[in-house]
Design goal:
- The chain contains 4 helices and 4 strands; from the N terminus they run ααβββαβα.
- With about 100 residues, it is of the alpha+beta class.
- It has a single domain, classed as Ubiquitin-like (UB roll) (Roll), CATH 3.10.20.
- Heterotetramer of two alpha and two beta chains.
């Protein structure tokens, strides 16, 4: 979330998070898209990071697709960003 807020399409962290998951998959089959921009194809970067960063910068709602190319299951997650104000407010909150 913080990388998205900073307009940084850090697909390496997405790949790392996939690796931490319990799902068995072959990294050479993975593709990752930011909107329609493919940043990973068959587990390898496509060199479109700057284009994906611009996509994040210019859109208030973004889509990040991770395809393991394994089966037909899918999931959708809705979330919000972490802005500087959100972090500041929550850092000051004490229980």
């Amino acid at each position: 979330k913080t990388a998205n807020y900073g307009n940084y399409s850090n697909w390496g962290r997405i790949m790392a998070a996939l690796g931490y998951s319990v799902i068995k998959f072959n990294e050479e089959n993975v593709s990752i898209h930011f909107g329609n921009i493919e940043v990973v194809n068959k587990g390898t970067g496509t060199g479109k990071d700057a284009e994906a960063n611009n996509y994040l910068k210019n859109n208030t709602e973004v889509s990040i697709l991770r395809n393991l190319n394994k089966g037909s299951a899918s999931a959708k997650v809705l979330t919000c960003d972490l802005t500087e104000e959100y972090i500041r407010v929550n850092a000051e909150y004490r229980t």
